[in-house]
Amino acid sequence: MKVMLPTRLVFLTSILLAVAVAFAIWVVIVSATFSPQADASLSDTEHGVNADIAANFNIPAEDYQYARYFSFTPEEFFPTGGSPPAIGAQVGDIHVEATLGLLNGACNVSLPVTVELLWASTDVSDTITPFAAQFADADPANGVPDGADHYPDFLTRIIPGATPIERHFGWAVLSGQQVSISIVTLPAGSLGFPSAWGRPSVTVLNDIGDPAAEPQPYGAISDFCAPLSNSIVTFGLASDGAEVRHNPDCEGTFSFRWYAESMIDGDGDGYENYIDTCPLVTNIDPSPKTAAGDPDGDGIDRACEPAGGPGMMCWPGAPGFLNDCDSDGFYNRGDNCPLVANPNQADADADDIGDACDPNPTTPDGTPIIRQMQVDIDITGGPICGQQTPTVTPVAPVGGITELERGRAPLSALRSDADFPYVALAAAATAAALLALTIGACYARRRWLDR
User: Fold this and answer.
1) Does pLDDT of 191 surpass 80?
2) How many CB atoms lie within 10 A of CB 271?
3) Global confidence as pTM
4) How far apart are CA 23 and CA 194, in angstroms?
5) φ, ψ for residue 27 (rounded to 5)?
6) Closest Cα partner for 74 from 375, 372, 371?
7) 404: alpha, beta or left, given left = phi > 0 and alpha = psi -120 to 50?
8) Which of 73, 96, 241, 289 is least enclosed, having the fewest CB within 10 Å?
9) pLDDT higher than threshold 80 for residue 276
10) How far apart are CA 90 and CA 92, in angstroms?
11) 11/17 Cα distance (integer angstroms)
């Protein structure tokens, strides 16, 4: 049997290792995508009925997580008369299956939760603070959480200058933490989007995006990752019988839309800055979404560990221990500067890289991927939308027979995509009106996720 010489063995091993590393990096880079999936359906497509609307927004496992998204409901589906539901009446529910990283662990824990949505106050002059007060039932004690009875103060900062016309409120307990959801609906044309898109809704998780919020040390939830499944059902009728949604009174095609932005990836290695503990250097370890992605158990990729660090939890000389190597009160995976102490987690450019370790603290590292989605739904029965009712005009009788002139009006198109091209939307979305929501709109940010 031929024996391979040691020199050749070392040479071949080094080549194979280089190829393996290159292949691993290649896989990481090309696997980075952002292709959210959205859908909408009605419990009944007949015109004029109070159908439930089911809307789904999903992020596949291989994708970046979203940074913000807006959903749009055509104006024709909102009631135009009658009394609104009573505060606290159930108007829908939301089912979320989130993928989380808990207590500095891999971002691979699936947590399903279903939350009832209640009709809530939109009176921006009647606010409630602090954050935890929204879970109480004290002002007044009427069986309805105060977060529905009053408008949470943090929403006035997350969506500044907005005039909400509808809000749905829900809450749950996740990993021992109280979590709130507010779905705020704004007038058509808000936030720089075209009016023809309908009324935009902004989903706010907790007070994420509030510039006045304080970071919470050692929170149970370190990371928020893909995949994500988000299903919202909005009832046609509230639990008290009031109208919430009303199918259009005519027959036609109506478009439901979504606008979404991905989280950003400063080094382009396929892991968004939010979950990447080495955000500006291509990772060496396997995916941080798996337990295998952290061989030494400290939550920091080897590409960023200093000499002597790889293979050791908080290597000798590190100021901290175990899962907080810089000893600033935040687990490495939940720290936007895991190697530089920054207890305030300040991040001026909102790129998920803390100012203390960001070489470009005023310019985001990475560019979001923008997606727009549209689902068309046909409403059946009734007159055709846009068609005028024929008029009958009598004329002078001729030969004893009255001749009638029948007026005809052409059908008018319900919509035209040319009126609001996606290119125009992308430009509008980056305008000042939208930039006012720098880190809002259901923007999952690690340092404010836990309460």
Assistant:
1) yes
2) 28
3) 0.78
4) 44
5) -60, -45
6) 375
7) beta
8) 241
9) yes
10) 6
11) 10
Coil, strand or helix: which one is 132?
helix
Between strands 404-406 and 90-102, the pairing is: unpaired
For the chain, the residue count is: 451
Instruction: Let me know if residue 24 belongs to a domain.
Output: no
Burial (CB count within 10 angstroms: exposed 0-12, middle 13-18, buried 19+), residue 269: buried
Nearest Cα to Cα of residue 183 among 169, 165, 198: 169
- For residue 384, the one-letter residue type is I
Domain-embedded: residue 291: no
| 69: enclosing H helix or E strand | strand 66-73
For residue 62, is pLDDT > 50?
Answer: yes
Residue keyed to tokens 């919509």 = 415
- The residue range of the domain holding 110 is 34-263+368-375+420-448
Report DSSP state, residue 143: S
Structural domain contains residue 344: no
Q: How far apart are CA 416 and CA 421, in angstroms?
A: 9
The contacts of residue 189 (CB under 8 Å, 6+ apart) are 195
Confidence at residue 214, expressed as pLDDT on a 0 to 100 scale: 84
Alpha carbon dihedral 353, 260, 167, 209, in 10-degree steps, equals: 10
Query: From CA 270, how far away is CA 205, in angstroms rounded?
Result: 25
Say how far apart CA 211 and CA 205 lie, in whole Å: 14
Using alpha carbons, select from 209, 250, 177, 248 the residue that is nearest to residue 450.
177
- In terms of DSSP bridges, do strands 404-406 and 392-394 run parallel, antiparallel, or are they unpaired? antiparallel
Instruction: Please report the DSSP string for 178-243 in residue order.
Output: EEEEEEEE--TTGGG--GGG-EEEEEEETTTT-TTPPP-TT-SEEEEEEEEEEEEEE-SB-TTS-B
Identity (one letter) of the amino acid at 219? G
Q: Which of 274, 269, 273 is nearest to 285 (CA)?
A: 269
Kindly tell me if the per-residue pLDDT of 163 is higher than 50: yes
> What is the per-residue pLDDT for 387?
65
- As a whole-number percent, the residues of the chain with pLDDT over 70 amount to 78
Rounded (to 5) percent helix, strand, coil in the chain: 15, 30, 55
146, 128 contact by CB (below 8 A)? yes
Overall number of domains in the chain: 1
Whether 227 is covered by a domain: the verdict is yes
Is pLDDT above 70 for 441?
A: no
For residue 298, which of 286, 309, 285, 314 has the smallest C-alpha distance?
A: 314
Q: Are 231 and 92 in contact (CB under 8 A)?
A: no
The CA angle 245-251-254, to the nearest 5 degrees, is 60
Query: How many C-beta atoms surround the C-beta of residue 212 within 10 A?
Result: 10
Q: Which residue has the tokens 């994500």?
A: 228
